[in-house]
Amino acid sequence: MDTYRLNGDTLAKMLRGGASNLKNNAQTVNDLNVFPIPDGDTGDNMSRTIEGGTRNILPNDSDLTVSEIAERLADGMLMSARGNSGVILSQFFEGIKRSVSGLSELDTEDLYKAFRRGVEQAYSSVAKPTEGTILTVMREATEYAGKNTGKSSSIEAFFDAFEKEMYDSLDRTPDLLPVLRESGVIDSGGAGFVYIIDGMYRTLRGENISNESQFSNPDAFVSADIGKNFDENSEMKFGYCTELILQLMSKKCDVEGFCADDLIKYLESIGGESVVAFKNGTRVKLHVHTFEPYRVLEYCCGFGELVTVKIENMSIQHNGNSVKNNFTRRKEDKRKEFALVAVAEGEGLKEIFRQFGADFVVDGNQTMNPSTEDFIKAFEAVNAEKIFVLPNNSNIVLAAKQAADMYERSEVYVIPSTTLAEGYSALTMLDYTSGDVDTIIEGLNNAISAVTTGSVTYAVRDSHIGGFDIKTGDWLGFEGKSLLASGKDKVEAAKGLIDSIDLSEKEVIIVICGKDASRDDMDTLRAHINNKYPMIELYEVEGEQDVYSFIFAIE
Predict the structure, then answer these.
(1) For strand 411-414 and strand 508-513, is the pairing parallel, antiparallel, or unpaired?
(2) Residue scoring higher pLDDT (195 or 469)
(3) pLDDT tens, 27-45?
(4) Residue 167 host element (H or E)
(5) Nearest CA to 327 among 20, 81, 43, 525?
(6) Domains (range + CATH), the chain
(7) What pLDDT does 103 receive?
């Protein structure tokens, strides 16, 4: 069952699933790292960052709101953020925290706004944002999901769209960063982000993701072999990865007026690289690669006191690691060449459409016609190069065409079927064997043009139509949109309709029975048709549709 409101308990479980999935694949992410130098710890850094956040969410916190969960996560990640990608990741979730503040649950529109705010926060935290990194993957996936889902979409639909573009964006990172292309890898930070979102989505769909791995790069103080490749004859080539949290102090600076941009300018003036610095409340989080970490500490202490400090020799990290690409995209269903999406109303008719070859049936309830995003979701689900669409309702054709124009992953062809009878007949003629789009479309259109549609329903108000004085509750028989018959019961109207249609060149009548058409009703109607039109073949279908007691496809 799809989820339309995301609560705090579900979000917490998803975040734990995302953290576990990244931890299980941390070494794969470590092996990808070549930017800005191959320090080999991106997977571990990102994993420790998000785990620092999920540890802030206790198992018995099931009654917390989305806002409370997001706050605990972001605050924990801020304190635990490690490495360039880890700090950026923490800021993505900081942006989400700010967006969902005060909300108990999220719908899909809320979720999109939160991710968009997360992207903005992540970009703003980096002194010189670089495309082809985790930032690009975050941004492009968010933009795509926002474009292809809306407020009425399910949370699953959002993540489905997000994940598809997320993988594609990650695949494109070598096109944006020559260092990745030269090494034959995709961006390591982007890969780590993919593992987190993938784990969150799989958890949402009911999968249990448990921790299976330990961190591959333990902290220096617990590793007996740390620095074994760095001795008195080694050359310091890469400097120090320096990270700290600074508590601003009123006695040392104007806490409210402190601007991280000034700090960034100083770090760049002393040759600092990969600078990420931002102010959060009265604290500053800093990440920089420098050959002079003491100058960083000295300068920061002029504004406050150090809460945490981590300084690592990147030459040691570099000497002990090599770059390799073991990342594999999670297996997807093989993309089909052709697929068909049809609109139908009534459980019986939907099942028949599926049996006739519809790959996805969109609910066409007369009181709530499908939207453009409903069609786009269907297009994603069928996963085909070329998609044919049968709207089966004149009120739906425009939405189907708009979705076809918007959708870029497939070639979409809208067949202008305007009734369920036309859709039924078209599906009976569906044939992909030619392999030619024009031939397939011609076959569908020929079936539609050969069918006459009849329908029987009831009047909801008094009116005068086509020479008929209609009273509320009367039963009406239409050929297309033309009223040809009326009666005091559905069978009387159906018989009058059949008798009013020119059947001289027709061979088949298919009766699609609605929910309110009883066995006795059908027995009476069948007897009338068989007795009066013995040369016409009669077929009966349990459509179970609501509004129309009978739909006739006459061929």
Answers:
(1) unpaired
(2) 195
(3) 888 888 754 443 447 888 8
(4) helix 155-176
(5) 43
(6) 6-219 (1.25.40.340), 240-319 (3.30.70), 336-449 (3.40.50.10170), 452-554 (3.30.1180)
(7) 96
